[in-house]
Amino acid sequence: MALFAAADAPLRARRVCEAMDLEIAPNNINNTRLKLKRLTERGIAVETEQSLCTQPRP
Description:
The protein is of the alpha+beta class.
C-alpha cells in the first residue's frame, strides 16, 4: 500500500510490477492485475477506471 500512497495517480498492474521489480511479462502482469482486483473487492483499494487502482481516500 505504500506504493499507492507514494503515487500521484492511480496505477496499472504493469506499473505495480515495475515498482516491485518483477519481470515485465504477461504472466506477472496478469497475476498482479488479479491481486489488485482482490484488493478492490475487499475495499483495500479502489478501481477508479478500468484497470486503474488507487488506495481509498478517507
